[in-house]
Amino acid sequence: MLTNDQPRKDHVASLRSDAGLASALRVSLARLTRRLRRQAAVHSLTPTQLATLVAVERHSGITPGELAELEKVQPPSMTRVIAALADRGLVSRMPHPTDRRQVTVSVTEQGSTLLKEERRLKEAWLTQRLKELTPEERATLRQAAPILEKLSRI
C-alpha cells in the first residue's frame, strides 16, 4: 500500500540523477512559462510576435535578416512578423544607414509601452505566487536564480 508521501519520496529520489533533475526542471519551467504567458494575455500577439518584439527592443536597429537568424526562423516568416508588428504600430522600419537595400527595425513608443505592461502583469502575478512560499523557499529561489540564468545562456 502506498502512503501519501510515497509518490513524494519517489519524486525526490528521481531528482538525485541529472536526468531526473533535467526532467523535473523541464516540466516545472514549461508550466511556469505557460502560466506567465496567460497572465499577460491582454494583447493579441502570438508568441512569435511577442518574442520578436522583445528581440527588437534588445537589439534596436537590427535588420530583418539578423532578426530571423537570432530568432531561428526563415527570413520570409520574419518579414511577415515584422509587417504585422508594424501594422499595429509596435515597430518601425527605417532605411539602413549604410545599405539602402535594407531596413532596420526598432520598437516604437507603443511597442515599448506594451512590453512594459506585459512585464508588469507577469511580475505582479509571480510576486503574488512568491508571497505564498515560505521564507526558506524564497531564499532557495534567490540562490537558484543565478544558476537558472546561467543555464539559459549555455
Automatic annotation (TrEMBL):
<dbReference type="InterPro" id="IPR023187">
    <property type="entry name" value="Tscrpt_reg_MarR-type_CS"/>
</dbReference>
<dbReference type="InterPro" id="IPR036388">
    <property type="entry name" value="WH-like_DNA-bd_sf"/>
</dbReference>
<keyword id="KW-0804">Transcription</keyword>
<dbReference type="InterPro" id="IPR000835">
    <property type="entry name" value="HTH_MarR-typ"/>
</dbReference>
<keyword id="KW-0238">DNA-binding</keyword>
<protein>
    <submittedName>
        <fullName>DNA-binding transcriptional regulator, MarR family</fullName>
    </submittedName>
</protein>
<keyword id="KW-0805">Transcription regulation</keyword>
<dbReference type="GO" id="GO:0003700">
    <property type="term" value="F:DNA-binding transcription factor activity"/>
</dbReference>
<dbReference type="GO" id="GO:0003677">
    <property type="term" value="F:DNA binding"/>
</dbReference>
<dbReference type="InterPro" id="IPR036390">
    <property type="entry name" value="WH_DNA-bd_sf"/>
</dbReference>
<dbReference type="Pfam" id="PF01047">
    <property type="entry name" value="MarR"/>
</dbReference>
<feature type="domain" description="HTH marR-type">
    <location>
        <begin position="18"/>
        <end position="150"/>
    </location>
</feature>
<dbReference type="InterPro" id="IPR052526">
    <property type="entry name" value="HTH-type_Bedaq_tolerance"/>
</dbReference>
